[in-house]
Amino acid sequence: MAYKDEKLHEEKVFKDPVHRYVHVRDRVIWDLIGTKEFQRLRRIKQLGTSNLTFHGAEHSRFNHSLGVYEIVRRILVNFEDRPNWNKEERLLCLCAALLHDLGHGPFSHSFEKVFKLDHEEFTKQIILGETEVNVVLSKVANDFPQKVADVINKTYKDKLVVSLISSQIDADRMDYLQRDAYFTGVSYGHFDMERILRVMRPYEDQVVVKESGMHAVEDYIMSRYQMYWQVYFHPVTRSAEVILTKILHRVKQLYEQGYIFKMEPTHFVSFFEEKVSLEDYILLDEAVVYYYFQMWAQEDDAILRDLSYRFINRKLFKYVEFNPNLQMKEWMELYRLFNQIGLDPDYYLVVDSSSDLPYDFYRPGEEEERLPIHLLMPNRELKELSRQSEIVEAISGKKRTDHKLYYPRDAIIQLSDSQPEKKKIFELLYQTE
Amino acid sequence: MAYKDEKLHEEKVFKDPVHRYVHVRDRVIWDLIGTKEFQRLRRIKQLGTSNLTFHGAEHSRFNHSLGVYEIVRRILVNFEDRPNWNKEERLLCLCAALLHDLGHGPFSHSFEKVFKLDHEEFTKQIILGETEVNVVLSKVANDFPQKVADVINKTYKDKLVVSLISSQIDADRMDYLQRDAYFTGVSYGHFDMERILRVMRPYEDQVVVKESGMHAVEDYIMSRYQMYWQVYFHPVTRSAEVILTKILHRVKQLYEQGYIFKMEPTHFVSFFEEKVSLEDYILLDEAVVYYYFQMWAQEDDAILRDLSYRFINRKLFKYVEFNPNLQMKEWMELYRLFNQIGLDPDYYLVVDSSSDLPYDFYRPGEEEERLPIHLLMPNRELKELSRQSEIVEAISGKKRTDHKLYYPRDAIIQLSDSQPEKKKIFELLYQTE
Amino acid sequence: MAYKDEKLHEEKVFKDPVHRYVHVRDRVIWDLIGTKEFQRLRRIKQLGTSNLTFHGAEHSRFNHSLGVYEIVRRILVNFEDRPNWNKEERLLCLCAALLHDLGHGPFSHSFEKVFKLDHEEFTKQIILGETEVNVVLSKVANDFPQKVADVINKTYKDKLVVSLISSQIDADRMDYLQRDAYFTGVSYGHFDMERILRVMRPYEDQVVVKESGMHAVEDYIMSRYQMYWQVYFHPVTRSAEVILTKILHRVKQLYEQGYIFKMEPTHFVSFFEEKVSLEDYILLDEAVVYYYFQMWAQEDDAILRDLSYRFINRKLFKYVEFNPNLQMKEWMELYRLFNQIGLDPDYYLVVDSSSDLPYDFYRPGEEEERLPIHLLMPNRELKELSRQSEIVEAISGKKRTDHKLYYPRDAIIQLSDSQPEKKKIFELLYQTE
Amino acid sequence: MAYKDEKLHEEKVFKDPVHRYVHVRDRVIWDLIGTKEFQRLRRIKQLGTSNLTFHGAEHSRFNHSLGVYEIVRRILVNFEDRPNWNKEERLLCLCAALLHDLGHGPFSHSFEKVFKLDHEEFTKQIILGETEVNVVLSKVANDFPQKVADVINKTYKDKLVVSLISSQIDADRMDYLQRDAYFTGVSYGHFDMERILRVMRPYEDQVVVKESGMHAVEDYIMSRYQMYWQVYFHPVTRSAEVILTKILHRVKQLYEQGYIFKMEPTHFVSFFEEKVSLEDYILLDEAVVYYYFQMWAQEDDAILRDLSYRFINRKLFKYVEFNPNLQMKEWMELYRLFNQIGLDPDYYLVVDSSSDLPYDFYRPGEEEERLPIHLLMPNRELKELSRQSEIVEAISGKKRTDHKLYYPRDAIIQLSDSQPEKKKIFELLYQTE
């Protein structure tokens, strides 16, 4: 039997708190899960620093990747005998679902920003490079790794396949909303996925949703909206993210300045020099990062030491609301005062902005352009969701942004009351709110 | 106001997936949670290697410790106005609940076995030593750290207080059963804790349970039984544990033999030499262990390299059932054969035994002697649980043991079919089952 | 001890699927639950005909009333030591919460429409009249029954007390959304009530919500929106409601025409004559209604017999979308055709309209005027919810109406294909959609 | 296409709180659900009088019947391609599952006892008699109604089919345990059905369970045990059952004595005379029974009036533990005293016994003989469950019986303290406990 059609002698299941069970019958999928590149996702948390806010959020990207695979698997069971659906694409969909996050590193967001990396690029490299994953995929067909990479990269010719993995209601989002809700314990993030799966239909170059399922989709969009503001952009999580980013900035700066580290930051050198090989990238999991942070909490450089200590021991920055347009004067004054008291404002006075677009009907030319959701009407026509749903219309295309100013309150409080800057700083901070 | 009575201006809550919210009003508790020794528990998984079997089980001891605190807090709300209850012990109970696992290190079980450590001893040292935790506790009263240590050590004079934290139905067990069930996703581990809390009563030197709650307690005992065999003793988890233990053995042995490591195992030296200081102990969190394992997967020593590689990439040992009494002959033959094919049997042919005593009425002189559960009858007499419950009686005092023989099936399979040992080994292995 | 302060020797609990347990300590509450007027609520379904759509929705008003009581009880535990809260009102709040639906009869909506009744009026009569409930309440104080009636009637002087029971985020709504979701099994209707309860504050003449809880309130509003359209206005439920209403119309009409019933409709006579005494009203529970429907399914009058048979055996009307403004011509033509084929259109061609206002900031002068929800800002000012929440603003004040035309498809289908009306009727019906 | 193979144009789903969705594709199933005999099950509560103890337990037999159908449907999806499974039996299994409780009347237990009825006999009559159900089944094949009746009656030749519907781990039990747990809200009754379904295998003349699923089965057996004692045999439920039975006894006795009822008990006459026709039986749903009870609460006969009033208004009997073997003397004395104070002891002093056999390996010749559960071992042999599971062995074959003595405490309390019987009665009652 061809490798691509090989079934396990007996179905394997993973116990999954969100989908109850993840089912694996295909030999290819089983082999992919066993590769070291996929196992590495166990050592990368799905939500980065969110566990410092929600102590349950320790779940890994391994976890999520299995979940996305399982959702696509269930969708395809429903698609099996439908017109418009090409059964030949089944294995490709499953592999792309399983591997879509393969290139994620620890704390991707901060690392990518500071070291100018792109996890999607690494996903591609892992799939196409000299890896265990590539060996497995190549056994299916010579061009199979490229196909999988194309689907994940959204350049695959069959857009219907792409839309299963990347759209405004794809398996990725449906899994992470539910999973992140489960592990954080928040009561948002629930929607009737079983119903959505039942009303999904393949339709030309996209997956659409039968109109009768519109309310379930509304509920999903609202869940997404709530999860963004309640969990993903939680101000405490962002505080940890700010510190993390500043650690990376500092250590890079020190390296560039020829600073002598107590322990050579071997794993980081290629990151500092912005020429990261695939091998270096794969080695750098979350444990390694934590290990270095602990080392750096004992470095001589006061800023690196302090920030690393703060991250490890969760002595986070506090925040006030901040409007960057209206409050530049206050900001500049604070900047001056921080310098005066010896707190480098580039590290200790940080504006962080989050913004979200809960749903959009169409955003041509934007960085992450995702297809709008289409409803399949009883007359077989399509209608874009926000034209049918008042609720979705109300939030559609509305970008909401939130700015906060982060600073180490503990350090300011420790200043002597006789230091005039102390009072001024607090006055300015409370004014910004 | 005395520090011990200080309340936070506003109640703080932690979102908890198991208890919904963990509530903190006491300044002392809030300060303890903020110490670096307590924050360190975030970097130690509650279930060690279980996440390699149940991918959701990434939750930390931080998580569990807050849960135990919350359960005790709820119990004490119920006790508040009851006779037999000394309100003065409230803060002591809460602190002991919160801190009872403070001395746990990464993969405690294996580390303790190999390096002859005792996490309870470290818990005591952290509470009584020069730590942030000790600073906070000492502010309550000079003798308060000692009291907390005594409760955790079960030597505190008021046994009623002790029994809240350590008995056969204590807050510790009630939290971990539910929490481990939640994060693994198994459907065991559920029982009606709310009801148990409502029927708990302080009674002389122990917490007892009103007879009307007997069925809820039965359910709890059964949950415990199921969790042990379905989760805690899962054979795949034990495989990872076996490998982990063997890594530690190997690295210690190499150190003792003067082996030159590519990277000096600084963090481990005092462990190898069995003179671990508190400071060394605290530094060694799970991230550090994983970091070393990754280093060791690149060492020259074949055994250390192979085992570390296996652990990191989840290439685990397989197992067969094994009866150490009846199968010594097979075992010795396998031992010989393993040597012959160049697999050191001390590292690659491992018997692992698990045993559990789901409930016991009385076990004087045993290593971990826990009080039996007593029911409070309508006539105010006490009756030991197994005398009232047929189900509990049925399993009471019955120790169940399970032995498995672990070995690297992949390595045996890779032997050439022409090697006569290959066939013999498989024959012997299947014979043991 | 005064009756009003009397506590039960031991707390009583009701196992409740939604709130886990309903706790009763007050003698007064316990006695009220035991009255026959309150027990009667067991024989009236919370959701009338919804069980014909959602087979789980068999839960009673008894069920819901205990739930509302329990929510108010929990709110008051939080209010206990807050400024602005008058502890003396506690028992009044609990009684009003428990009894607020006391005057509901079976299928209230239809009965009230056809027989011009008002369940709020009967609630008042039961509280103030010669009933077991009145006996219990009067033992608290002579004017206590009147106070309870006033709170339920929203005329009580302390508007803070009123707003616990009747506002846009009162205990009534919080219970029924969750309860109806639980029993129907839909995945809407969930929100984080525990969090809402924690952020509720007494504030002058209303209950307000701390701004930090805004997202939980948004979630509640969305749940409400979804429950209305997914459950309460489900078109199949409305079909059953249409038939039920027509049965009552028919039987009243027959009575007025002097029709001789096979079995005298004794329980209904005072309803037909629109002079229903309290005693008559209380006797008419759902079992009695069903009994009569079964009798009427054997009556001589064809319309009454058919409609009753349909209701009992769930042979419901089908529906098409209908726009009463644009489709009067089609409607009149259908009316004519129905007459022609011998189906009285007054009974067999029924337009039903549902409309909902998910949230409103202010609707002075409207029939059911409920207070808007106010957020308590950090600076102690109030802000009306829709001014802070984009989502709520989006749906605020927007009344959505849905019209459907109900008709007995089975009867039309049974017409001979040679009857020209058959084809015409179907053409007209499909045109309306 | 043959009627038996006809599929609905589009799958129909019922929202079900327990199984999420019940799926119907077969035209035959859809038509059966629409029959009036099946719809009648909506008017019969699954748990009879349990709602007087657990207010959520209002769910109907309709509800449960759909659930059993859905479980069998899911089992058969798993069986589809297995050896030993005859696909031709699929529709038969589904119909038998759906209809297995069709003959249940209101409060079956009491009615059957008093009027010597047998609901299984009526199930058969409905399936084979002149009913809508029979019309549907006969369209499949002439002998199909008889086959369905045979499966339900356990006389069908293919015992594998029978064991799906009636065994110690059949679809019936799996549904009711979960459903009754859900609606009562108790935390027992949960087990991992999804896992059990996955490990079920057709094996010669029975359904067996793969050994790897043993723990899930243990959990199911324990759930059953707990549900029996916590829910089904709850003493308050039994109190209501006792009163109900006595009402039926009394009214039958009165009828036999020629008592003149205010309202002729038409629906009951054939029950009193023990010659109930199918038509009479079907008419008597729960609403009709409640209607009569309300009438009888206004009868002249003091016993009938009082008992009916008690049932309707939940003024139940209290109970004490009672040992019928040891306490005959006390019983006789109480009997005498009750007579003396004018409370007919045949109606007011009632011993009720409940007993359960949670699991049995084999009970040949017993009234309800169910197959033991067999585990399918890795070597393809079968082992009876209690030989493998210690827990099941512990409770296997152990019948547990509980006796209680019910009496109207309110009536005794109302006796004057000067009446010497009062004191004696209470002394005797407390002695029995």
Automatic annotation (TrEMBL), chains A, B, C, D:
SMART domains recorded: HDc (SM00471)
Domain spans labelled HD: 61-177
SUPFAM superfamilies: HD-domain/PDEase-like (SSF109604)
Pfam family membership, one: HD_assoc_2
Xref: PANTHER family: DEOXYNUCLEOSIDE TRIPHOSPHATE TRIPHOSPHOHYDROLASE, DEOXYNUCLEOSIDE TRIPHOSPHATE TRIPHOSPHOHYDROLASE SAMHD1
Protein name per the record: HD domain-containing protein
Lineage, top ranks: Bacteria, Bacillati, Bacillota, Bacilli, Bacillales
